[in-house]
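Continuing the batch. This is chain 6 of the set; chains 1 through 5 are on the previous pages. Same settings as before, nothing changed between runs. Recording input and output for traceability.
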Amino acid sequence: MKLLLQACLFLVLGGLAAWVIEKDSGYAFLAWGNWSVELSLAMLVLLTVVAGALLYYLLHFLVGLIRLPGGLSAWRRRLRQRRARRALTQGLVELAEGHWQQAEKLLTRYAAFSDTPLINYLSAAQAAQRQGLDDRRDAYIRLAHRHMPTADVAVSLTQAELQIAHQQFEQALATLKHLRDLAPKHTYVLRLLAGLYQQVGDWEQLRRLLPELKKARTESQEKLAALEVQVYRALLREAAQAMEVSRLDSVWRKIPRSLHQEPRILGDYARLLHERQRDEEAEQLLRAALKKTREDDLIALYGLLDVAESSETLTRAERWLVNHELDPVLLLALGRLSLRARLWGKARSYLEAAIAHGAGLDARRELGRLLDALGDHQAAAQVYREAVLEQPGAAPVALPEHIRQGSMNLGKGEETLLPDLPDAVAES
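Output for chain 6:
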């Protein structure tokens, strides 16, 4: 478009000059020393224009020669940048397709000439990580930081992610602590740190981090609540394994009061108290909780407690039967509490009712032991037999309804085994 406008301008000026010359070409006389020249004015103007044009293009050519090295450098730089962009694109494609070695080569070949060296080196670090080359991965991380020191957070985040993925937890922890100094309120840093503490089982550090996680809203309220429950349950388990007797109560006091009635936390603490023969304390906690909520795990645990006033405990628990007469968990708990209170008939009734409504092996075991103690061995044997048959496993081999000793197909040497069997088994 520019060239067309210039051509039009030249045509207009040329036409105007031709018209002027046709009217009057003029006269010019030039003298310099002994030299003199006579020519028309139009010719003088034409020669001046041609000479000016030649001078202009000569100067332009000379300037081009002077700038040639710089121009070549710029051209080579642009060429490398184009190649770097193509290599970056292809390298990212190879990385996504799982060709780690080829991706690493492409990403690093022109990284020094790339417009985005940070992306090149961080992606190359991922490719090296996939190949198990930790030293090369760390070298690329350092190069990324060197090329863009202002992106320390981005570089360190990538480094921490790669270290966690490679289970280098100590190095990842050091990196994340460095990140916390750089960006104390960075949400993703807090999330990574929380995940790392979970993986290594450092529940105390995670407990201390919980207020910041809530403040930063790193996750939804539901997920944070579940994480809080997980943390305190883990701390209770750790306290139970410790040699210090008071550590369990110390952890319980650290738990926020709002979580003291959380069924899973309360159930864990009460169960640990029961294991340490502190059933009176566990009974008070469970009784208070069961007034507000009805959880099967808490009811089942309540039935295992051995307290001094077992009759009163049974009486309190029987009040829960209202609208829950068919609950097998509650019936089993009442059966156990009746056994503690030495009310054998009531215990048998509750246990049989629990079994009738779907209670499992525990109820049959309790009933079988009670029947044995009462001398009703045949009924106890039947309960045990049902308990065995109800156990999960492969289907038993099909047998005829009645197998008599005389009709048994015994192999050689097996006849001598029968006389040693109990009479009751041989008759059956």
